[in-house]
Hints:
The protein is mostly helical. It is built from 22 helices and no strands. It has helices at residues 4-12, 24-37, 53-63, 83-110, 114-138, 145-152, 155-190, 197-200, 216-229, 232-257, 274-284, 290-296, 304-333, 344-350, 355-389, 400-417, 420-424, 429-446, 459-475, 483-501, 519-533, 537-580. The longest helix has 44 residues, at 537-580. The two termini are 22 Å apart.
Amino acid sequence: RRCRTQVGVEQHGSNAAGEGELGPGVQETIARERVADVEECKAPLGAPILTDIHLLQDVRDKCLECRPIPGPSDGELKRGLGPVELTLLGVGACIGAGIFVLTGVEARAAGPSVGMAFCIAAASSVFNGLCYAELSSRLPISGSAYLYAYCMFGELPAMIVVVNQLLDYHIGAATMSRSLVAYIGQAAISAGVPVHPCFVHCEPFDSAPWFSLSLGAPVVLFCVTSVVAGGAQMNARVTSFMTVMKICIVVLVIAVGAQMVNTDRWQPFFPYGVSATLQAAATLNYAFIGYDVIANAAEETRNPRRDIPVAIVGALGICAVLYLVVCMVLCGMQNFSEIDASAPMTGAFVQYDMLWVASAINLGAFFGMSTGLLAGVYGQSRIYFALARDELAPLVLKQPAWSSVWCGCVAGMLATFINVRELASLLNIGVLLAYSSTAASILKINSKERGRRFCLGSENFWIALAVLLTFVLSHGGLLSPILPGLAAVGLLGVIFWVASTREYCDSPGGAFKCPGVPVTPMVAVITNTYLASRLSTNAWCRLGVTTIIVTVVLCAVTLRDLERRQHTICETVRAAAAAAGTKPGVCHSCG
Length: 591
């Protein structure tokens, strides 16, 4: 709803310039618009705004208002990255988190089947990666999942997605910084250098186990933030060098460790059941965050329509192979219950007195987690940049250097004072939400009936139905043993119905086309939802709390903005009437 009377004053006010009264054009405009403005001005100034049903509808429309789709020529950042830098950026993000941190933790939780958990996570990531490849080539500016959700579903869904995604980014950066400090501390002790316990982590208060002090984590994050704040080119050069060194060390570990594998240690393959493997797969999705970081670099890529799809597919392929082989070697070298969760690869070779390999692994861990941190801080800084550009974050964050500093400070505070285990229990729900919204955006952007919001003929309806059936598939067995089977049949029916009855258009010329639409994005939505349903209760509570907070805050801001707009109309009418020497007779507040 616009201030129509104010527009009339702006258009015709020049008729009365210097005469002390409004021109006839303005008076005609006021008379013509009074009837239309009666409903908007019915309430007196300061009256409860919730009594206006039309204003509530405006709030709904504003919260679901979609951002205009950007074009290939849009963007404000310098485009200087190519496919090699993007691929190494993605590999750097993946390998750092997966091999040097999560392998040990998830191997103890899932046993030798951790390799299968990585495969499941990689399979779901392939579908997600193809969705990201199309959208990042068609919408080549910063923002990633937030941008896609804003363009396809509206402002409120986009804010829910981005807030939860950024929480995962911050928690992930804090987790990796602590793990990196643990590796540095272990290497220093091995070299005979004394290390204060609180440099790695210590718990000064027994009554507050969630409080854990790590003085080394903020130092690490300061160094990483300084590199990211130096610009995309500096970040790409540092990341590329470290990633190449890291891959060489991983290949060395595989070659040497394979000679000490005992296949008997792979039994039992599922020591804690299939459910533990599936929950590990949900956690390991964070290890395949590389394509999201690549998508966030779209605005700084020379040829995003070609380079980003190549980089996403290449990074996923390289990482999936390395993950699987390393996990099987690690679980074959020692019993899964004896794996050191904080430094799994180093501990495995120390048991065989191969200290030179352990030293190389410590160096590789430093490179690996450093690139993971670099990619994480870089990705979230570009999201904040996109938020600031859309005026949904402070404008100072529109400067990439300042957005990088902000991201480093938030992660540094978390890593310094919060127990890393408490952080890990909240991880991944935001990332999976971002993946699901991106896959759903593929259905929306390619649909020939994109304008419909929620009805039997809209993509929103079929996406929501697929999500509901996926939850029944995951947890319906608690109510009845036949519910999961019925849900599986229902999901197949939804995919078949959407594929056979819905019409989808092709991507614009030159842009990458996600193969298998609508099956590929539907499978991605279902897989992500299923993996999310296997996460801990803490993660889902976090999602619920953040969703409620975002919804309340955004609706309150929108209400305040619309209330100010409504009162502006009344004030404009009153001022115009006073200038004309008449009574407005339009609303109580103007009377």
